Amino acid sequence: MSFREARAKRRRIMVELTPADHEVLKRWLASAGSADETTLAEAVSAMIRATAADHVVNDAVLALIRAGQS
Fold first, then answer.
1. CA distance 57 to 67
2. Phi–psi pair at 43, nearest 5 degrees
3. Would you say 29 and 37 are in contact if contact means Cβ atoms under 8 Å apart?
4. Looking at the predicted structure, is the pLDDT value of residue 15 above 90?
5. Which residues contact 40 (CB under 8 A, 6 or more apart)?
6. From residue 23, how far is each of 9, 33, 68 by CA, in Å?
7. Are 40 and 25 in contact (CB under 8 A)?
8. Global pTM value
């Protein structure tokens, strides 16, 4: 397998959410009008791309992570 093929291969991750966070995610998708069409994996993938692309979002996410670790 070439380097390019290795980078393009999808990875499966598991995410443990609290029931409350899972409900927030489902409500957020429903409010976007795409809950039936968008999988949770697609939503998380989009969130990752948005976080990586936007410095304001990135900083907000990192602040939430740091707050949860203290």
1. 15
2. -65, -45
3. no
4. no
5. 25, 29
6. 30, 15, 19
7. yes
8. 0.66
CA 44 distance to own-chain centroid: 3
Kindly state the average pLDDT of the residues 20-36: 81
**pLDDT tens figures, 36-69:** 667 888 888 888 999 999 999 999 999 999 998 7
Backbone CA torsion sign across 38, 43, 27, 25: positive
Map 1-70 to HEC letters.
CCHHHHHHCCCCCCCCCCHHHHHHHHHHHHHCCCCCCCCHHHHHHHHHHHHHHCHHHHHHHHHHHHHHHC
Residues 6+ apart with CB under 8 A from 47: none
